[in-house]
Amino acid sequence: MSKFYVDFWSREWIDQNQFPEATLESFQQAYADRDLGVAFSGGGTRSAACTLGQLKALDELGLLPRVKYISAVSGGGWAATPFSYTHDLDQYFGKISDPENITLSNSKSVLPKSLQEAITQSPLVSNLLEGGLKLRGDESFAYSLGKVFLKPYGLDNPNHYFTFNNETKALAKQGFPRG
Question: pTM of the entire structure?
């Protein structure tokens, strides 16, 4: 087995070190109660894993309720879309451990139906082949991503709408106003 190295900041290091902006009174007052917008970049499953960790960090910091706007591209969207519709954050996040507590044995188990499971056990290639065999053509990749990242959350059926609530569903079904 080849070796790999990981750099991380432990919870102990974070607690012992101050971030300058956190101590500025003007920073604390100006941003204490504002809504937040976050953007997640693309990069496939690595970006999905990064987005999962960033969302978990926002949750642990108590900032998640203030997040009102999310923009995501590619792999970031694979994680952000199910997050936007989940009703069970614990299930969505799975078991995320602090880096110093990760071992080879506990890194192999993930919570079923969590985004961790979708990322670590994603059968993207086999789903891509299945989509191709079902003559989905250029939709094969979308089909594959839907099965891996959206199906566990009931968001994989292209014939069903999924929106914020019934009011936005009705608006979406009406279509855009013609100009």
Answer: 0.69
Contact 75, 115 (CB under 8 A): no
- 89 in any annotated domain: yes
Cα(173)–Cα(175) distance, integer angstroms: 5
How is residue 29 written in tokens?
């007052």
Burial of 74 (0-12, 13-18, 19+ CB in 10 A): middle
pLDDT tens figures, 101-125? 888 887 778 888 888 888 887 766 5
Strand, helix or coil for residue 139: helix
Query: Which residue in 80, 74, 76 sits closest to 142, CA to CA?
Result: 74
Gap between the Cα atoms of 44 and 36, Å rounded: 24
What distance in Å separates the CA atoms of residue 134 and residue 51, rounded to the nearest whole number? Answer: 31
Q: Is residue 15 part of a domain?
A: no
Which residues constitute the domain of residue 67?
A: 35-97+112-173
d(CA 64, CA 37): 10
Residue 82 and residue 143: Cα distance in Å, rounded?
15
pLDDT of residue 92: 92
Distance CA 32, CA 154 (A): 35
How many C-beta atoms surround the C-beta of residue 45 within 10 A? 17
State how many domains the chain has: 1
DSSP 145: H
